User: Fold this.
Amino acid sequence: MILVRTAARPAPRPRAVVVEPGRAVEQCLHCDARKHSVCNAIPALDLDRLATTAVSMNVESGRAFIREGDPAEHFFNVTAGCAKLFKLLPDGRRQITGFAGVGTFLGLAVSATYAFSAEALEPMKVCRFSRAKLRALLDDFPAMEQRLLEVASNELVAAQEQMLLLGRKTARERIASFLIARAALPSNCLASEPELAQVITLPMTRADIADYLGLTIETVSRSLTRFKAEGLIEIPAAGEIAIRDSAALTRMAAGAGP
Amino acid sequence: MILVRTAARPAPRPRAVVVEPGRAVEQCLHCDARKHSVCNAIPALDLDRLATTAVSMNVESGRAFIREGDPAEHFFNVTAGCAKLFKLLPDGRRQITGFAGVGTFLGLAVSATYAFSAEALEPMKVCRFSRAKLRALLDDFPAMEQRLLEVASNELVAAQEQMLLLGRKTARERIASFLIARAALPSNCLASEPELAQVITLPMTRADIADYLGLTIETVSRSLTRFKAEGLIEIPAAGEIAIRDSAALTRMAAGAGP
DNA sequence: CGTTGTGTTGATATTAATCAACAAGTGTGG
DNA sequence: CCACACTTGTTGATTAATATCAACACAACG
Assistant:
């Protein structure tokens, strides 16, 4: 969970590592993640302290590593791969509330139980924190709490945007919004440029997209087919979509276009 | 923005007031709010410091005091009344993302502009903080940051629940969920008992309910009429609903019942 | 006493869901 | 290597839930 600039990990782990304030941190000393948004906020860390708090874990594809209603014992930071987060109704209806890519925090909630389930879409790596110990850690590192507040605020804004989509947008507008949002994802476009990606990778199935957008798989499929016919997108391969007319899609996503 | 147990405000305001840690705080020294969730988290406060940071404001009914897209200069805490929070599409479609009652924080976002608009449903009182000064205040009082993180986490859970509602619940289930959620509100049921209120007060119109639940006013009206015919509720007066069969409504809200 | 905003109810339209069939890809085991 | 099951995705026909359009009742208000 600690990031320092050193490329190689020190063989016998030092008992305490202090990263100088202001110095950029890139390589997690705890797990092998390259970039670790928790730690970027923490100028000085006690390695042993963190080592007892976090463990790096591999999660196999399809594995549900958080279950709604279970006691919320852990707190996760995604370091590789992507998960879907969802809530279920008793009869099986499902709402995917988001996809958790690299850097995402999971399980922030104050509640004693998880409010949603999380299932790996592909092989993942996560850093798992004990929530009990996390509280003590946050008390020592207010900067980390500040970072978490930022993250939570941003997620809240995204959640409100999704409510607008689910409550008021048409099927076509929802798909367009989804495509544009994916294209704007830092993992899909080059990190340096703020532009949209030309080709986006979708690690989720049509069923996942449908459950994320409050539609059925048939409606998702038909909308994509129609976008293709209209020259807005191309589908070069399964799990890939090429954006051909991002302006039109952006307009549609905003609730204006055709 | 400071709460101490003293009933009367000290006439010449002391230059610095320190509230002992662990001591309950009830009366805001800054504005005249009775309970102030910001301050409950802060064991020791500098009154002058806060006084330059927050001002108490009255907001008349119908006034939009936050506008989506405007520079986010302030941060609010509702101390009386209720507001609707919403986002608009260019053609006027509206999604109400929540209702902000007493104690609610508004404008937490990291972004430079507001992500939603807020309009008073009734005469309100809010405490307005300068966001620029808030940052410095939070740095001095990590406990306040912690409190905000809790609040944001809870709101995130509520937002996910609302996504489930908007994406996957039927019109009847949405209305049932709304009624049960309002009945569970501390302001509607007695604070001491965790039970549901028998009669709930709705400060919002049918149009607001519709825009909150992703429905039309007609569907809201028809659903309520049918609930009444089925003996689940009664409508003693405009803006009031009496819950007659909370068990059935709760089941329906969960996506199980009839 | 008209005007306006709000809420209800009815008739009809439309979007997206449901039901159904099938194609393509993947993995399994004989 | 090839049937076989199984998953995923596409497309068509039909249905159903909810939106839309329309009329009207009622209360608040100037």
User: Anything to note?
Assistant: The helical segments of chain A are 47-51, 131-140, 142-168, 171-184, 206-213, 217-229, 246-253.
